[in-house]
Amino acid sequence: MTSDDVSAEAALSRVFTEEWGRLVARQIRLTGDWDLAEESVQDAFALALERWPRDGIPRVPAAWLTTTARNRALDVLRRRQVEAVKLRQSAQLADHLQGGSLSTALEDDSGIVDDRLRLIFTCCHPALALDARIALTLRTLSGLTTTQIARAFLVSETTMAKRLTRAKSKIRNAGIPYRVPPAHLLPERTAGVMAVVYLMFNEGYAATEGDALIREGLCAEAIRLARVLAGLMPEEPEAEALLALMLLHHSRRDARTSPSGDIVTLEHQDRALWDRAAIKEAAAVLATRDHEVPPPGPYRLQAAIATCHATASNAAETDWARIARLYEQLHEIAPSPVIELNRAVAVAMAYGPAAGLALTDRLVADAVLEGYHLLPAVRADLLRRLGRIEEAHAAYQQALALTGTTAERRYLEGRLRETEGG
């Protein structure tokens, strides 16, 4: 492989991370066909992989991909001339290519022109099941594979593929419009939209596959969308809390990996590298609701947990007892085995590894997190701290077999070496 090949692949990988959602959303708006939109964008990336090493990287890679995907879609629509609906779409798209504006015909009454935000609200239509809304948006907007999304939902790839197919069919057959709904309909989609944005952020914050632990472009896009959502729904405290939560997490990005790409755990991070401007902004966002009496929602509670970390000058001064209580509150209003696993970590830090291990062993017995690599990883760490080295070694092996990123594999391999031979 030549240096040109490497640079072209690196550029294409970067553009994929930053532009996939924008490209697919635009194609959906232009064609009205979800499958064709994804296929045409995939074809554009495949053609780029073939041509860029030979012809050079375009001056504006995203524009090249947009034009290529659009031309590919037009070619497909022209080949479907036996279908009257597709003929009309082809004519509309051809008019757009000649200088017309199909987007004008598709304007909605929200005044929002961001195709990605329209895509999220379309995917989060209340006619779709909540898990289908989230999965479909992650697939189309973030470019996550079916395997990655299945991991996020702790289901099989086959099950997730069926959910995605059913969701697309529902949108097509029910004629769900591609738009941001008017203000009075926003509340019924709030939960789904916020869940989508947060899952998008989480995939960027801790990728489920690949060489890099962090996909900063995906995190930045999720934060940008959260800002738009908070502006769209100023009376929704959870939208502001979600923005603050992501700002607090992302503030640690420069300290989470070493220069060589290895994981740096929270207790060993150089807190001087944390983004204090992001932490300050998050505090200001949260302060706007401090006077309100209603009980906090799940994002507000998670933001409070993140604030405990952000405001501690070092790991030893972290208020782990408060974090454990906050996780308990969170589990009461939004029960989740992942939340319970996080509570186990906090309990271990506050009251000792034996207390945390009792909670993780309960999760193992319940078999609710099978296939989730962080459960055996947490157990392994607690067993190691208790001096049960052989058991810790076995648990690290189990976690290593389940993890999907290079950075996490290297971290777990290091722990395996430390526990080798008991």
What does this structure look like?
With 422 residues, this protein is an all-alpha fold. Among the domains are: 1-103, no CATH class; 312-422, Alpha Horseshoe (Serine Threonine Protein Phosphatase 5, Tetratricopeptide repeat), CATH 1.25.40.10. The protein has helices at 3-31, 34-55, 61-79, 84-97, 102-105, 115-123, 130-142, 146-153, 157-174, 190-205, 216-232, 237-250, 276-287, 298-310, 320-333, 337-351, 353-366, 374-385, 389-402, 406-418. Helix 1 (3-31) packs across helix 3, helix 2 packs across helix 3 and helix 7 packs across helix 9. The longest helix is centred in the N-terminal third of the chain and has 29 residues, at 3-31. The chain is globular and about 70 Å long.
Report the structural category.
mainly alpha
Radius of gyration: 23 Å
Work out the helix count: 20
Spell out the helices and strands N to C.
Answer: HHHHHHHHHHHHHHHHHHHH
Parts with pLDDT < 50 across at least 5 consecutive residues: 97-112
Question: What is the approximate shape?
Answer: globular
- CATH topology of the domain at 312-422, which one? Serine Threonine Protein Phosphatase 5, Tetratricopeptide repeat
CATH architecture title of the domain at 312-422: Alpha Horseshoe
Q: Count the strands?
A: 0
Biggest beta sheet summary: none
- CATH class designation of the domain at 312-422: Mainly Alpha
Question: Could you give the topology of this structure?
Answer:
Blueprint: H1 3-31, H2 34-55, H3 61-79, H4 84-97, H5 102-105, H6 115-123, H7 130-142, H8 146-153, H9 157-174, H10 190-205, H11 216-232, H12 237-250, H13 276-287, H14 298-310, H15 320-333, H16 337-351, H17 353-366, H18 374-385, H19 389-402, H20 406-418
Helix pairs in contact: 1-2, 1-3, 1-6, 2-3, 3-4, 6-7, 7-8, 7-9, 7-10, 8-9, 10-11, 10-12, 11-12, 12-13, 12-14, 14-15, 15-16, 16-17, 17-18, 18-19, 19-20
